[in-house]
């Protein structure tokens, strides 16, 4: 069976538009439409920032639904499950595509707190002044890309984007003031990155501890002390979040979802899901208020 949640790539779905890019790491696209694939459940293969003029825009990112009508900023992180339900083609959208290599190499001291807040609050309505400021940032990036020296252009783009996350990101996503400096916080960031990439294949903490070169007991204590959330709960939360999206947004059967999430049986999946949500998968699928 083909995976109903497909990866999204700018090259496959914006091929008819002008793409201003710096190699494979950074690209700008201006459009008055959303690709048809945005109205299915998809996973972006990079970070996508979308600056939106005032319009009606509805959808979901993970299990969080959104409905926007004012100028807005949406930031989609790699591997997040995304689906747009409604978009009025009466405005311009400004897309900024950033590869993981690009974002990983940004000089951001408080990286974890910023990206964590973006992850949990990926779309917000903004004021007209903030919208104009973002357009200035977009235009500066476009001017940078058109520079004749690609290496210098990439450096400037990184500095401008770091400033974006420090300034606009700070104000809009209310990132915490804690700065990531110590080893424990770095391990927390690496752990969450590993969980995002592997949760549907590896549910046991031993896998992550081995990848990070430490014992499960030490990793468990470190994650709990630095995030306030147990390491096993981080893994469970990602599994349950994707399971909920599959149940609500796709026609996949519960057996198919169980197989996709790598459970040994539908019965095992059902017990796991109910333990964490107090509902069976079928009850959750038919429950209209969640």
Set out the fold topology:
Blueprint: E1 6-8, H1 10-13, E2 20-22, E3 26-31, E4 42-44, E5 47-52, E6 57-61, E7 64-68, E8 72-76, E9 82-87, E10 93-98, H2 100-104, H3 111-120, E11 123-125, H4 128-145, H5 150-166, H6 168-173, H7 183-198, H8 205-212, H9 216-227, H10 231-249, H11 254-260, H12 266-277, H13 281-286
Helix pairs in contact: 4-5, 7-9, 8-9, 11-12
InterPro entries: Homeodomain-like_sf, HTH_AraC
Protein name: AraC-type DNA-binding protein
Pfam families: HTH_18
Describe the structure.
InterPro entries: Homeodomain-like_sf, HTH_AraC. GO terms for molecular function: DNA-binding transcription factor activity; sequence-specific DNA binding. The structure is a single chain. This protein has 290 residues and is an alpha+beta fold. It starts with 5 loop residues before the first strand and ends with a helix. It is built from 13 helices and eleven strands. It has two domains: 6-173, Sandwich (Jelly Rolls); 183-286, Homeodomain-like (Arc Repressor Mutant, subunit A), CATH 1.10.10.60. The chain is 48% helix and 18% strand. A six-stranded antiparallel β-sheet has the order 2-3-10-5-8-11. A three-stranded antiparallel β-sheet has the order 7-6-9, with no helix packed on it.
